[in-house]
Amino acid sequence: MGTVSEYFGSLVFDDRVMKAKLSAEVYQSLKKTIDEGAKLDPGVANAVAAAMKDWAVANGATHYTHWFQPLTGITAEKHDSFISPAPDGGVIMEFSGKELIKGEPDASSFPSGGLRATFEARGYTAWDPTSYAFIKGKTLCIPTAFCSYGGEALDKKTPLLRSMEALNKQALRILHLFGNDTVKCVRTSVGPEQEYFLIDKEMYEKRRDLKYTGRTLFGAKPPKGQEMDDHYFGVIKPRVAAFMEELNEELWKLGILAKTEHNEVAPAQHELAPIYTTTNIATDHNQLMMEIMQKVAAKHGLVCLLHEKPFAGVNGSGKHNNWSISTDTGVNLLSPGETPYENAQFLLFLCAVIKAVDDYQDLLRISVATAGNDHRLGANEAPPAVVSIFLGDELNAVMKAIETDTPYEGTKKKQMKLGVDVLPKFNRDTTDRNRTSPFAFTGNKFEFRMLGSSNSIACANIMLNTAVAESLKIYADRLENADDFQTALHEMIRKTIKDHKHIIFNGNGYDDAWIQEATEVRGLLNYRTTPDCVPHLLDKKNVDMLTAHKVFSETELKSRYEITLENYCKTVMIEANTMVDMAKTEIAPAVETYAAEIAKAAAAKKTLNPSLACVYETELVKKLSRLVDRIALQTDELEAALLDLSSAETVGACADAIRDTILVKMGELRLACDEAETVTAKKYWPFPTYGDLLFGVK
Ligand code: ADP
Ligand code: MG
Q: Which of 416, 526, 593, 652 is the most buried (most CB within 10 A)?
């Protein structure tokens, strides 16, 4: 392989390739579609398809697939060969514009929340020309949206594209009000930092919980955990380094700008950060990144765990969604500007985000709701389930000065007059210090930190984009009709700060006192679990807002409500069944065997010397027997509770029962089993322990 600059993006049908392989006319026409959403001419589609196919075949591809993101949370593909029979009995490699633009995967097994039943039996995929096609293995992958024939979205990409368009539309209105007429398009960009664990594959294979559920359902705390903080940014082990090197190469070939990698707080935990890009592409890239991490790990005898909480008592994995808004002219709208005018514009966009996050706290919480992430949020290792915003001291002081019309006590100690004064340059160090906030301003972007490591970033960005579009719409409606722009602007910013300052919190988000203040004093929402928050997706204010911006229809929202809760129920039910299975067929027999062995040892000693008391053996056998009884009892109870679930009439009722009963019983069974692990000789324990898993990769 050559140098990085030679192979970077070598498997992507990107702008460079398009320019080289398409006629100037076709290229211009396609560019117009990509940049401005212009409709694609069928003739152009045919020319693009032919060029794409030739390029793909020259790079070893034999198949193509429409690559899409159904509501399972992972990506889907159905491979079709380029090969068509030729009249002379041979074959030719064919790929038409029609095949590029539209596909009809047999989609009946993807979740649709009842959508397909009410519309058409089949869904179709439609090419998304704004995300580049790429080659994976021997297959040309074409990023697509996935819809029903009634036009209802069955995927995560369709609403994401719609949300980007909603924000574009409203942001352009605001920019025009500021006299900025050269901007054609406003896009959000995202750089998602991805956390993950790497463990040894042989050990993984011995644990059915990891194999079936992605997390450990049992496991006593090891004598050493993360308390020494010696893993964080520590030296990367050779096997892990080899994995990272190959991972980078694979990602670079796909044009994914993997940039930094380091060890995380927990042992065996790592992080990969890409350089940010347009939200749509960042979403595709993050899905690809997760997939390739797992593939490359397998080649190195490792398993990459993307679960939010693979190990109890050890930090879980999240994903930080670094998000900003910028123009096609290269201006980051969340970056304080050089002139008073730019500053006023910056403050308006900043206020739009603050208002959006406050008004739609529930939607942001819902966008990260999964059974896995429920273990993380609020566990004093990740942000709490309460949404709040960190601005940093300097920006906070600016906001306070505007709100109260008092002098700004920052570096310059002067009054902040919008449109007249220039904001101070914020010191990055002070904006980036708080790591415990769910939503932090970090100098020129916001970092939304509540996402779980396995979440698609689409959901969070759909809600964020649309909620901000809504704030901007309200602002634009007012400003377009204002008699005096400056005064109206100033008043609006001041009102936003006044109305929404309760969402701003610069302290320690992991502190229990904060949760109390947030909920009892400030009235912020605290939805601890998925079943707590997801029903609010259908609250009138949320449905009204999301449908007004045409991001979701009401039917689509209902189906997403169903699917999210269904996924939650299925996930926990699989976990509970796996626990029952492991407790019955592995743990109880192991404890029993060990108890019998000890009893046998005591009996043997007594045969030699009947006066021996064998206190150690007797007590241990008693203890083991009590534990086995407890394990058996709790397994029965969990099984009975699982059977009871069938009486739940709605998915909501089932989810509630899972939260209130199943998860509690799972916790009790685990407690008994983990205690048994601490008193059973290691060689009798049926699978690798936490210590083995967390410190097993050299
Ligand atoms: P750190 O958080 O490690 O100090 P950075 O600020 O460089 O690092 O960035 C963290 C992530 O934020 C990276 O993925 C980076 O690409 C992304 N990022 C930086 N600037 C932006 C931006 N304007 N919009 C979106 N993401 C950004
Ligand atoms: Mg970060």
A: 416
Question: CA distances (Å), 353 to each of 15, 166, 175, 345, in order?
Answer: 32, 15, 16, 13
Q: Is residue 524 part of a domain?
A: yes
Task: Render 543-605 in DSSP notation, one character per residue.
Answer: HHHHHHTTS--HHHHHHHHHHHHHHHHHHHHHHHHHHHHHIIIIIHHHHHHHHHHHHHHHHHH
| Domain boundary residue, one of 139, 155, 171 | 155
591 belongs to a structural domain = yes
Q: At 119, is the pLDDT very low, low, confident or very high (cuts 50, 70, 90)?
A: very low
Q: Tell me the best of 281, 321, 445 to mutate to test the pocket of ligand 1, counting ligand atoms within 8 Å of each CB and taking the most.
A: 445
Give the helix ranges, DSSP H, for 184-237: 201-205, 208-213
- Which one of 259, 275, 276 would you pick to mutate in the ligand 1 pocket, going by the greatest count of ligand atoms within 8 A of its CB? 276
Q: Is 276 in the pocket of ligand 1 (CB under 6 A)?
A: yes
Name which of 26, 47, 48, 30 is nearest 39 in CA terms. Answer: 30
Instruction: Give me the CATH number covering residue 248.
Output: 3.30.590.10
pLDDT higher than threshold 80 for residue 443: yes
151 and 274 inside one domain: no
Please check whether residues 498 and 590 belong to one and the same domain: no
pLDDT above 70 (res 414): no
Per-residue model confidence (pLDDT) at position 1: 63
Kindly report the pTM of this predicted structure: 0.93
Query: Which protein residue has the closest C-alpha to ligand 1 atom 24?
Result: 324
Predicted pLDDT of residue 267: 84
Q: Three-state SS across 631-679?
A: HHHHHHHHHHHHHHHHHCCCHHHHHHHHHHHHHHHHHHHHHHHHHHHHH
**Nearest-ligand number for the alpha carbon of 442:** 1
Number of structural domains the chain divides into = 3
Per the structure, the complete domain to which residue 673 belongs is given by 567-694
Based on the domain organization, do 287 and 373 belong to the same domain? yes
* CATH code, 46: 3.10.20.70
